[in-house]
Amino acid sequence: MRYFRLLVLGNGISAYGSYLNMVALNVYVYDATSSALAAGLFMAVRLATSVVSGWVSGRLVSVHDRKRLMVGADLGQAAALLTLLIVPDAGRVGLLYALAVITGGCSTLSQVALRSSIPEIVGAEHRVRANGLLVTGRSLAMIAGFASSGLVVAQFGYSVAFALDAATFLVSATVLFLLPVRTRAATEGEGGGPAGSSGAARWTARMLLATAPVLMAMIAVRAVDGLGSSSHNVALPIYSSGLDPAHPATFISQFWATWAIGNIVAQQVVGRVTRKTGRTPGERAFALGACVMSAGFILVFSGLPTVPAVIAALVAGAADGFTEIVYVSRLQTAPDAQRGRLFGLSASAENTGFGLGMLVSGALLERFSPLQVVAAFQGLAIVLCTALLVALTVRRSRDGALPTRTAPRDAPAVKEGQG
């Protein structure tokens, strides 16, 4: 864990750059083109690249050195931003969509590679704690990135913002390159190759056949969570403006700050409970946490007074952090050979849900209130999670009534922390 804390620091710095980058680039596209359509197309290209990159990244991290892939992803984003800096203003607009492809693809590749590597870096027994630290670092980075982006652009201009973005990725790449960490199981090769690739493909098919009902349901929940997340992201500025037209940013700031605090609290609680009990929360805990998270987000938009609304945001943030930790930790129980493909599939599903939700929720908010839109999307997540809970309960009752059977030697671990 000593080296991993440095990795978390580097990852948090690059995450800060990603969030700063997200705001600064979106605003720059609009300022440079004076076109809302161009700004929307830039976001669409970036999201579409993230969806496609999930499938490609899963294959790449299964057959290539994950540490090198993460370093390369950070360097790729830094190089793209530095290229944008040195190109004259008149030529920057043409590079923006190439930049959207590079940043969308590299960020997804880095995320898939890192999540796949955690059990090998810290050991399977420490993965929950490690995932919690990553959630905390990313939450703090998100708040810092969103909070400082407007100030950086307003006070120093886009060039300084892009240079700062590039610097964060260079710092992250340097930290990763210098850390003596192993990102792949010791029994597997680092270079992949045709034989390794076909072996990983066979493993993937066998694993999905063995665990598809549970893992596919969890990934589906995450996709629907992406829909719900997009709805409150789009609805939040509208809802905040309705609460206080003179200071529309006030409630947004309160919401995200409280959400981040909830994420940090979740990391602390899950880490302590896991160390004390030696058990990892499992699928049922994931489904329950997702229900609480969705209900919390609905309450935030229900017109509650400030204090209850902040408490609801705190609960939603804590449940969001909890489900993230449990979900990632559960997928990390899969054998190393197909862990990357699972996380690639997960990234594609989550980004697809988020992108589709951005489009649909934006259109629905033209006719319906923020509460109605958020309740519809988050309510769908609650229905799906409830169905998963029922299925898990039925399966547990059925398995308890059957004689104990020895699991196949190659089957991934599925019994850890069932609730």
From TrEMBL:
Matches recorded under InterPro entries: MFS, MFS_dom, MFS_trans_sf
Lineage: Bacteria, Bacillati, Actinomycetota, Actinomycetes, Kitasatosporales
Membrane-crossing residue ranges in chain numbering: 7-30, 36-57, 135-154, 160-179, 285-304, 310-330, 342-365, 371-394
One GO term describing the cellular component: plasma membrane
Keywords: Cell membrane, Membrane, Transmembrane, Transmembrane helix
Main location: membrane
PANTHER family assigned: INTEGRAL MEMBRANE EFFLUX PROTEIN-RELATED, MAJOR FACILITATOR SUPERFAMILY ASSOCIATED DOMAIN-CONTAINING PROTEIN
Membrane topology: Multi-pass membrane protein
Protein name, entry field: Major facilitator superfamily permease
UniProt domain Major facilitator superfamily (MFS) profile: residue ranges: 3-399
GO MF, one example: transmembrane transporter activity
Pfam families, per the entry: MFS_1
Compartment annotation: Cell membrane
